[in-house]
Amino acid sequence: MAQHSRKGAQFQAVTANRLTDGVVVYLTADNRWSESLQDAQVADGKEEAEALLARGEAFFMPENYVLDVYLFEVEKTDQGIRAASVRETIRQAGPTVRRDLGKQAELEGVHA
Predict the structure, then answer these.
(1) Angle at Cα 102 formed by Cα 36 and Cα 87, nearest 5°?
(2) Over residues 32-60, mean pLDDT
(3) N or C: which end of the chain has fewer CB within 10 A?
(4) β-strand partners of 27
């Protein structure tokens, strides 16, 4: 599986796409997949990250619930968890060509 984080990344989470509708999801501490990054379990260090990824990959085969399971770097802030890369920020929010679509439209409606 792909890994989209620096080798020395301290904090990482597992993401995938739900097979039924392609929505971006994040692995939680209780082995659920949530659409909210704030629900994601965050691994601290390489060993925790590898164990977290192994848990996430178990949903790919044989269950076929998600696909493209991988680790990505996150940062912990006072406001919660946030993706460290632009790629993951875009995946989390939705398409960038129309801000009136996707999750960013919902967020802008809340903050407007």
Answers:
(1) 70
(2) 95
(3) C
(4) 33
